[in-house]
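Record type: monomer structure entry
Structure origin: computed from sequence
Chain ID: A
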Amino acid sequence: MRALVTGAAGFIGSHLSERLTADGHDVVGGDCFIDYYARSIKERNLERLRAEPRFTFVEVDLNTLDPKALLAGVDWVFHQAAQAGVRASWGDSFRIYTRLNIDATQRLLEAAKSADRLKKLVYASSSSVYGDAATLPMLEDHPTHPLSPYGVTKLAAEHLAVLYTKNFGVPTASLRYFTVYGPRQRPDMAFHKFFKAALAGEEISVYGDGTQTRDFTYVSDAVEANVRAAASAPPGAVLNIGGGSRVSVREVLAMVEELVGRPVRVRYLEVQHGDMKDTVADTTRARELIDYRPLVSLRDGLARERDWVAALYGMRGA
């Protein structure tokens, strides 16, 4: 297969691109290096891929280049590119989110209408589309009431994917990620910040009182879900992709303390606008349709992220 991965220099996109090339697929990786965090981190994500003969990198903005050129001869598209960040999506920044999350997705879907070889376009959605659900676990058929502008844009793009399937036969599948973590996690994300502070002996800042819960998903499980969705998800499918357990932030901090081998200092801050209280995925539909089963436990995944953070910043791990 020949695959296009947008956002290939990012956290999940780089892992996905490596998996696809390891499986023997040819991959075109695209990224526009938005300045949400340092380009040097993204370039580091690409180091192994740049040495891979099956991988071709293209620096591209989907809003300025005609996506049809990228889709020529492509069998699978994995649309990982997006402007991330719940807390940064308010105010004037919202225009960046609409441009990169909605406009770019619509342009890609429009080009996909005439992509003759396309077998599946997998869109990276988010559990942020749910907001604070009335009941848990969250089912794909539950009402969607995002709490942040970011969540609104992810839901809008997800709706576009389904619309292009229903109206034009574009074979899409949307994966609602639940808090993906692991090596290469963005520097603004919680586990990255937790380990960076803990390894340096610095205070960890937590928004809220730490009783909020999440369904944490290790990056290789998210990658596996993408590969399975490309191969077997029915067109128009929307699937929850979770890690299989609901854990509070306080429980995570206890694991971080154990993994770094020293007590950690925590400062609890006010809850931020747009933050969800609890998330937990019902992955029954993903299990039934693509045989998705998360394999990496939270503790094992955290140990791998600890080692990566320590190497990234030249720190000594536990």
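Annotation 1: The chain has eleven helices and 13 strands.
Annotation 2: The two ends are 41 Å apart (CA to CA).
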